[in-house]
Amino acid sequence: MDRRQMIHRALGAAALAALPLAALGQTKTTRIVISFPPGGPVDFVARALAEQLGKELGHTVIIDNKAGANGAIGASEVIRSAADGSTLWFTSVGAAAINPSLYDKLAYDTQKDLAPVALVVNNVELLVVNPANPAKDAAEFIANSKKRKDPTPMASSGIGSIPHFAIEQLSDSSGANLLHVPYKGAAPAITDLMGGQVDGFFGDIPGLIGHVRGGKLKAIGLASSRRHPALPDVKTLAEQGIANVDTNNWYALFAPVKTPPATVQALSEAVRRALNNPALKARLLDSGAEPAPSTPAELAAVLKHDTDKWAKLIRDKKIKPE
User: 196-200 contacts: CB < 8 A, separation 24 or more?
Assistant: First the structure.
C-alpha cells in the first residue's frame, strides 16, 4: 500500500467515525423510552447499553421509563416524538410483535408507526423448578407430569407473555398435561414457585440466573437451539428430545417511522459498536442476556417473522387477554 492509499484509507475511516454525529445533526441528548418500570431485566439492559452508547454517540443518553398499558404508553410517547433520532423506543418482543395480535385495539402498529433500529439482546427462556422437585431435567419433569392424575401447574408472567407461549409449545411438543397459571408479572410467579404453589416456570435468564446461582431455583432446560454460556451445564429442550419450543424474548430499539434512514443507520452502527465493547459484552453475558446487534433490515425481518409466528399461535390457541 503506497502513501496515497494510506491517506485515503485513513480519511475514509475518519468519515465513517463521524457518520453518527453528522447524521444526528444537532442532537445533544438521546432519550430511550422503556415500556417497563425500573429494576427489571429490560431496564437493566437499557441502562447498561445507554452508558456505552452515549460514548459512541458523543452525547448524553438518558432512560425514561414509561410503563403501562402493555407497552402502549411507551410506544405512543415515541411515535409522537420528533423523528430526528433523539427519542427511541426500547422494548421486548411482547410489546413489539405479540400485542398487535393479542389485542383487538392497540394504540400503535409496530410495523407501520416505528422504524427498526437494531436488535440489542436475545433472552433465551429457561425452565426452572423448585429445588425440592425430584426432576433432574425437563425430560424427567415431563415424564413425572404424565404419571400424575391432575395437570401439572406451571406459572407464567401473564396471558400472552413469552413464558405463556413456552408452556403452550411445551405442552404441544411433549404431550404433557400442563395447567397454565398466569400471574401479573414474573416476580409473583417466581415467589409462588419457590413456595411450592406451582411446579414450573419459564422465564428470561436475566431474571432467573441469580436465583439459580443462589440455589433457590433449579434450572432443568433451555428453550434454545444451543446451550447458554452463562449456564453451560443446562441442556436444551431439544437435547432432551423435546422439539419446537422456540421462544426468544429479544429486546430491540425502534425510532419514529419518519426518522431519516441515514439517522437510523447511524444509530444502528453506534449500537453495534457499543455492544462490541468488551466490558459491556461481558456485563450482559454475565447477566444472562446475549448481545445480538443487527442492522435495521435484520430487525425488520425478525419483527415480521415473530409477529406472524405468534399471531398463528394466538389464533390456534384462541388466546385472549384478561
Answer: 196/130, 196/132, 197/153, 198/153, 198/154, 198/155, 199/129, 199/130, 199/133, 199/141, 199/145, 199/152, 199/153, 199/154, 200/127, 200/128, 200/129, 200/133, 200/141, 200/152, 200/153, 200/154, 200/155
